[in-house]
Amino acid sequence: MAQTAVTGPKLNQSLHQLLRHWNRPRPALGVLPRLQWSIQHDLVDAQGPIPTARHLIEQALERLNAVTPNEAALLRRRFIDDASVIDTADHFNIVEGTVYKWQRQALENLADVVRNMEEECRLQRQSRWLAHLETPTYSRLFGVEHQMNALASLLSNDDAPWLIAVEGMGGLGKTALVDAVMRQQQKEIRWCDAAWVTARQSVINLGGGIAKLDGPALTVTGLVESLLQQLLGQIPYLHQGNLAAATAQLRDRLKRHPHLIVVDNLETVNDVAALIATLRELANPTKFVLTSRHNPYMAGDLHHFAITALSQQDALALLRYEAHQRNLPEVAAATDEELAPIIECVGGNPLALRLVVGQMHVHSLATILDDLTAVRSATAENLYTYLYRQAWESLDDNARTVLLAMPLGSEAGVDSAFLAGITDLPGDALHAALEQLVAQNLVNGSGTWQARLYRIHSLTRTFLHESVLHWQRT
Q: Among 43, 110, 216, 439, which one has the highest count of C-beta atoms within 10 angstroms of its own C-beta?
């Protein structure tokens, strides 16, 4: 393992220099490495870096005194009491050379004590960090390494972006991706702490059942309350109905040291603009990662991080893994050609792929795919409801017309001229409709800034064959 300021010999030198400057008005704090112990105690005491650094030394000397009292006493006399080497030698009845020898050994042992304190703090922080995350819904992820590295790179940057929106249609694994990155980031010392706030209103299981979750839709008050509870363990001002004071308390915490905070399922928030405005106020150096089925592209300071469907290779790997996990050896051993109809029907949507495999204990593949296309089962209806219903109901008539026209074009994509010709919508109405569809991640825009193509996901194409027609009739 590569040495750091905490694990290597530099910590000994840093502690020595800090002790030498102990009686100066402003000790040389720049020599002290960034320690989780110091960060956590600064948050609790809010006294600033100098008192926190002195507190670190005092605590370490107390621990050293419990093991080697002579060494602790020597360091106190030499540096805290500012005694000379001669005075220290007389006090301990030793020669000057022995003072230097003892001092060297005492500093090494003091550094070991600080390392132990840091390890204790790291383990406490890790436990607290992981406790704030939700239980993972995955055991293994496929095709996400590049996206995980890209997101981690954005988070490791000490500058903007402060607000990162992980966007994509339902079922692509936005929450799983962010969860995996959060579990990696807990090892990064730059983060003081983490929090996870969910706005999710329902969940779908791999049997196709939808469960409504208790609790109101997320509001600014709910966000502040959840963050204060997770990070401080208390929400005193909100009990008094003082949102402004509670927000100020939270802002003070998040501005002092960088935190990493997730707001999951942003699309279910009632007032997205108000919530983003609050996050903007709380950000820097704290970073926020948002997951959303919607694309809030009107918020200029949001970094848009788009999640795409799995490639065919990764989709096949996921199918075989799920089949193995569910003890379906024939499916796991199937050829690419035998599994291809699944991908043709649902594309690289991980949720849909897993749901198809889950149905294979009961139904044949042909029956499952026919059900998805013709919406002949509760499982298919629930899947489409979970993924599309909220977005569909938010569209106006023009946007619905354009979406229904999308399957008539090439799977590679169509341009606005094609859509104008097939829908008979005037230019301004078509542009407004496309803005809605792209914002809802129902249609993907691609190409260059000079020429755009629009396409839909394979699962969306399947959904448009029958399910949406049933919704229109009802």
A: 110
